[in-house]
Amino acid sequence: MKPKLIIIFLLIVLVPIGLLTWMSIRMKENEQAMIRHRFNALLNEKLSDLDRHVADFLNVKEREILNLISSEVITVDSLRKISQTHGYINQMVLINANGDILYPNQEQQLTHKETEFLQRTNKLWQNGDVVSKSHSAGDDNQGTNQNRNYGWHTWYWGNGINLLMWYRTPANVIICAELNRIRLMADLIGELPDTNPDINDNNKTLITLEDSRNSVIYQWGHYDPAENEPARAMIHLSYPFNAWKLKYFMSNEAIQTAFLGHYGLNIIGVVVCVVVSLTILGIYFYKESNRGIREAATRVNFVNQVSHELKSPLTNIRLYAELMETKLQDADEVVTGYIDIIVSESQRLSRLIGNVLALSQKQKEKLKLNKRIGRIDDVIQSVIRQFEPIFKNKDIDIEFNPNDARKIKFDSDVLEQILVNLFSNVEKYASDGKLMRIDKTIDKNMAIMTVSDDGPGIPEKQRNKVFEPFHRVGGALTDTSTGTGIGLSISRDLARLHGGDIKILPTPKGTCFEVSINTG
User: Fold this and answer.
1) Is 52 helix (H, G, I), strand (E, B) or coil?
2) Can you give the pLDDT at residue 467?
3) 3-state helix, strand, coil in the chain (%, to 5)
């Protein structure tokens, strides 16, 4: 099989495979990006569920404290009792409408715990944050409505966040309860999972609860993220823990296995199936093409062998027919007419066989020149003599003026075959014009001849195609004549082999072929 055909077959197979692979990769990347986006949204939702769980836990404590305060008669003794007995409350505070602390007050006899509380919260009361917050129309940070009469206040002291719940009574007195941070943290962590509740992925996930300084308060899961590895998802907890963050870490392997692996395998499976199908199809067409080429080569070889076998007997038939034509010039017109037909048809068959053999030689790259000294006019006149009987029968006049007796070096057989094909085209397609003209000029190392007629001509769009092998001009021009469509192709190849060319010159009527050959 020719390398060009092999390249074509490879392109037929490899280009679709390459495009499909590229499209599959792009589809996979886009799908993976979409899945990652949805996956990150899912992780954020899981963290939001944990945040809601923490908020529900804090709401329970809110209700407990409110119920406790509302069930007691508010006195210094009752508040002190709550501070001493309630495990969740570290210290109670009572503030009047003017912002003065009624309990614990420096003028009272205080316990060590109460004294210590006033010392570490001194700035809190000096700034008046709690009082101003309780008098404001709700706390925007809490996202609550403006009619709430209780809320939270956070401040940092010591090792972390401290929570103070305030409640404003109908008498405009503010009651505050400082929560026991250690107890609160212990119960809060107890509400969080102690194992990874998410995808069972061989402990390749980790959730951390971090404070405002990015210190881990609590974590669960057994994945060990690399240093500075970004979290797959992160949210801040709701107020009053909005300074804390929940982070979700997950290994690439876990994501690939849990969400992207199956899709990747599906894409790979589809690509493999298509590649295999295209490969099988390519192999099938390759074999079929080879089989077709072998069959065509067999037919060509057969035609070549038959042509060679016919050449010798046809030469004898033509020779004896021409001898009979010479001997029987005075015979009956019917007899001479039969002989003319035999001679013309044998000449036409000789031209056809010559073209077939020339095409075969061209395909085998065996075309060679055999230049000898001679006169071009002699070759032209020889070819004219071959066609005189045929042209005479069709009333086609021949105009040629042999005016150059110079001897030059050229291949007479090549030139004869070129002229035979051009004259044959006039006889087949331009007989209605009733005229064929041959002109010749010799300039330095080039001999230039023109063969023109007054026939219907060749459409401009067809002028380049007529030199292609087996191409015949469609329409009325060729409907009434037979031919193989290789004459002009062979003629151009022979002219180019001879260092020249054949081209169609523009003419107002008919067709004009210009033949040039190198005579150097």
Assistant:
1) helix
2) 83
3) 55, 20, 30
